[in-house]
């Protein structure tokens, strides 16, 4: 027996609005970002932006209940990206989304490119070393864009309504300008080896 007819109680909170609020308060499964922005920032900053990229994604997973340490996972992203991709692909499967071979292979490609870039600094001088570094940098940027696209598809399946993080913030502009300066110095240094100096 219900008192005062609970269905018609004018003081009862609307159920539909409460349900919408509970959905909106749930944290996004992954960090929203434009794949193009992720790639450009990674390339401009010699892959230093990758630390920010990974930290933000791991932080989202931590907020969603995963037992992770975002700083540690970001610092060792070459290795921890495999675990991240497992979580991403599992989440995509739960949403009915397929994960293509490019996405699945991205952690291995990312680790290989990072190692190639580091080794080129030690083993190759001048233009050849710079060429390998540029290719490795571009490859890592592609991996970030691929992973971000996969994450964005999950957010779309979840009807994510928050910011898209596609614009150029002040921090991104400063990092981009600094990255361009570093690129210029690196290129000039690679095409002007010490061997051309007059003795």
What does this structure look like?
This protein has 199 residues and is mainly α. It has one domain. The protein has 8 helices and no strands. The protein has helices at 15-25, 35-44, 49-63, 70-75, 77-94, 101-123, 126-157, 170-191. Helix 5 (77-94) packs parallel to helix 7. The longest helix has 32 residues, at 126-157. It is globular, with a radius of gyration of 23 Å.
How much helicity do the residues have? 55-70%
What would you call the shape? globular
Biggest pleated sheet: none
Q: Count every beta strand, where a strand is a DSSP E run of 2 or more residues.
A: 0
Number of helix segments?
A: 8
What is the CA-CA span between the terminal residues? Answer: 102 Å
Average predicted confidence as pLDDT = 81
Q: How large, in whole angstroms, is the Cα Rg?
A: 23 Å
Strand content is under 5%
Query: How many structural domains does the protein architecture include?
Result: 1
Structural class: mainly alpha
């Amino acid at each position: 027996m219900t008192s005062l007819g609970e269905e018609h109680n004018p003081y009862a909170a609307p159920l539909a609005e409460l349900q919408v609020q509970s959905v909106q308060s749930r944290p996004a499964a992954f960090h929203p970002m434009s794949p193009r922005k992720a790639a450009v920032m990674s390339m401009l900053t010699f892959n230093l932006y990758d630390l920010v990229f990974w930290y933000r994604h791991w932080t989202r997973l931590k907020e969603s209940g995963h037992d992770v340490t975002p700083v540690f996972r970001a610092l060792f992203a070459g290795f921890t990206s495999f675990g991240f991709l497992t979580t991403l692909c599992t989440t995509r499967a739960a949403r009915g989304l397929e994960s293509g071979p490019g996405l699945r292979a991205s952690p291995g490609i990312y680790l290989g490119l990072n190692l190639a870039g580091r080794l080129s600094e030690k083993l190759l001088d001048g233009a050849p070393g710079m060429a390998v570094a540029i290719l490795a940098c571009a490859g890592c940027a592609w991996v970030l864009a691929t992973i971000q696209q996969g994450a964005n598809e999950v957010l779309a399946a979840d009807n994510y309504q928050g910011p898209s993080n596609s614009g150029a913030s002040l921090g991104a502009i400063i990092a981009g300008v600094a990255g361009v300066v570093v690129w210029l110095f690196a290129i000039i240094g690679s095409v002007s080896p010490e061997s051309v100096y007059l003795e």
